[in-house]
Amino acid sequence: MSCHLGPWFPLLYKLKVRFLSSRPGIEPKLQSLLKLYAGKKIIIGRDKLDVVKGVVQKLRAFAKLLHDYPEWIGRVVLIQVTSPALSDSPKLERQVSELVSSINGEYGSLDFIPVHH
Q: What is the pTM of this model?
C-alpha cells in the first residue's frame, strides 16, 4: 500500500494558512514578521515538544541546510513554536535549547539570529 500526496497537499496547506491568517489579530502579527524578516525566507514550525513530533530532527536538518549551503546564512530564518507535550520531558527541552543555542552561535551574528524558539 502506498500513499501519494500529489499536487493537492501544497494547495490544501495554502488554503488552511489563508483561512487561519484571516482570523482576528493575525494580520498585524503577520505584517510585523514580514517587516522584521524582509528579504529573508521564513520557515515556521509549530509542534508539540514531543520526541515523536520531530522538533530535534527539524533543528538538525536546519543546521545541515546552513552547513551544506552557507549562502543561505543570513537569508533564511526558522521560527519554531513548541507547545508542551502531555508528558513533561526536561531532557528533551534541554536538548532543544542546546540545539537552538548551538545553531545560533555557529551561524548567527550580532544582527542575525537564524533560529527563534
A: 0.76
